[in-house]
Design goal:
Elements (H helix, E strand, L loop, with lengths): L1 E6 L17 H13 L8 E4 L3 H14 L5 E3 L9 H14 L4 E6 L3 H11 L13 E5 L9 E6 L3
Parallel strand pairs: 1-4, 2-3, 2-4
Antiparallel strand pairs: 1-5, 5-6
Helix pairs in contact: 1-2
């Protein structure tokens, strides 16, 4: 399975709640640039996104600029305080139940860095910085701790 893990673009500092924080104008540009980058990945089978506003906006901008025709699915387990174990469990189930081989995840810190660390190194102590609108592509035969490897990393300008 190949996972394209994206952190949302730059977001406003304050809102009525953390989940309501919107992308800034710069964050919108960053998200569109991620979509431009992902034009080279036309085989993405599934898009999973956090329900938080800034992640939803990032995902919409990525889909609009990438040309991907996959419909995004909002999942509650991709929030900033989500459980890495739950994300891995959900991805294992997805891989086992279908022919989904390339997945785009749009989420938040600290979850994205922790997820990469667990899947690549088998523990949560790795150093995988994910600035706003960063993309890390990891790949492996199985979604399991320590069994995947980093293929590509792109940080926003």
């Amino acid at each position: 399975m190949k996972l394209w893990i994206v952190r949302h673009g730059e977001a406003e500092a304050h809102a009525a709640s953390d989940s309501a924080r919107a992308l800034t104008a710069h964050g919108q540009q960053q998200a569109a640039a991620v979509g431009d980058f992902l034009q080279a990945a036309p085989t993405i089978d599934q898009v999973l996104v956090s329900p938080y506003r800034r992640a939803q906006q990032t995902c919409a901008a990525i889909l609009a600029s990438s040309g991907l025709t996959v419909e995004a699915q909002t999942v509650t387990w991709l929030t900033p305080d989500g459980s890495v174990a739950e994300v891995i469990r959900q991805l294992e189930a997805l891989q086992g139940e279908s022919q989904v081989w390339e997945v785009l995840l749009v989420s938040h810190q600290p979850l994205v860095s922790q997820l990469i660390s667990w899947l690549v190194e088998g523990h949560g102590q790795g150093r995988y910085p994910m600035a706003p609108a960063s993309v890390t592509c990891i790949e492996g035969d199985f979604v399991a701790p320590g069994l995947m490897r980093v293929q590509q990393v792109r940080h926003a300008d």
